[in-house]
């Protein structure tokens, strides 16, 4: 296979170089720590935020190309020292913005050595590779790369004052490398859930939906461990948003009854009963263990499914967090992140 892409597959089970309607909820074993989010909106973190709970389409374009796999056997990629997880930022001094760009640059080389400017584990380096022509005459290195991803996830909060939103409660990682996707640019689009694959023990369910890739609601500017964040203009989420609720401190979150807001059919957001069974670490994005107890949600989804990642968690009149992960051995249960951790990722401590 050449450098253009792998076949597009869901984020949970494989990568995607082209945008498709995919689910965004990752398994509990697929965490990657990312950089802290860039500051957005106001300087001071808001004390009240609007819980959303509606799905959106999310498209993300990487900074450079992410190397997700090297072809078998001896290849130019291996010979020059390229490794899985590297980001190819430049080729012969020219910026690499897409797989098409890279393919053109390799063709223009005519097989002569090319200099790759690569970032690896936060450090940059230059590697020299000699492209080889395949049977079809196309020059290649023997590396599978990725330039973009897309899918469906849930918006957690919205701040009307700054237009800032947060979603997912976890970062978007490449499944082949378990590496946080380096964000160059991204956007969110209106979405509608059209079907649900129920979760079963050992097999995560998923929300299946449609979204319009041609019309953006707003922009993404951060992909980090605590979620994806961006801005949308006033009214982008419609007029049906509820009242802003106070952001709960971690010490205010208790074991016991709570609710989540989720969009598991069409455009409708409903409130469902859950039980917070354990309050865990205050760091990272697995701060809460929760179990779905609502009969209606269990009947519809089997519990927590891919695409529900980011669903707001409410307790005692306060906004406490968001759903982040499903337990594959028990789809009725999963993890959640404290809302305060998402807030800190945007506005700082």
Can you describe this structure?
The structure is a single chain. The chain is mostly beta strands. 9% of the residues lie in helices and 45% in strands. The strands form four sheets. The protein has a six-stranded antiparallel beta barrel with strand order 19-20-21-24-23-22.
Kindly provide the name of the CATH class of the largest domain.
Mainly Beta
Silhouette: elongated
Please give the radius of gyration in angstroms.
21 Å
Q: Say what the CATH topology of the largest domain is.
A: Thrombin, subunit H
Distance between the termini: 46 Å
Unreliable stretches (pLDDT < 50, length at least 5) are: 1-41
**Major β-sheet strand ordering:** 19-20-21-24-23-22
Order of helices and strands: EEEHEEHEEEEEEEEEEEEEEEEHEEEH
Question: Got a strand count?
Answer: 24
Proportion of residues in β-strands: 35-45%
Report the major sheet.
Answer: 6 strands, antiparallel, barrel
In DSSP terms, counting alpha (H) and pi (I) runs of 4 or more, how many helices?
4
Arithmetic mean pLDDT: 84
Helix content: under 10%
Query: Architecture of the largest domain, CATH level 2?
Result: Beta Barrel
Question: Can I get a quick summary?
Answer:
This protein is 9% helix and 45% strand. With 349 residues, it is mainly beta.
List the helices and strands and how they pair.
Elements: E1 26-27, E2 48-51, E3 55-70, H1 76-80, E4 87-91, E5 94-95, H2 99-109, E6 114-120, E7 123-129, E8 132-133, E9 139-140, E10 143-159, E11 164-167, E12 173-174, E13 179-180, E14 183-197, E15 206-211, E16 218-224, E17 227-231, E18 245-246, E19 256-265, E20 268-279, E21 288-292, H3 295-301, E22 312-315, E23 318-327, E24 330-338, H4 339-347
Parallel strand pairs: 1-23
Antiparallel strand pairs: 2-10, 2-18, 3-4, 3-10, 3-14, 4-5, 4-6, 6-7, 8-9, 10-11, 11-17, 12-13, 14-15, 14-16, 16-17, 19-20, 19-22, 20-21, 21-24, 22-23, 23-24
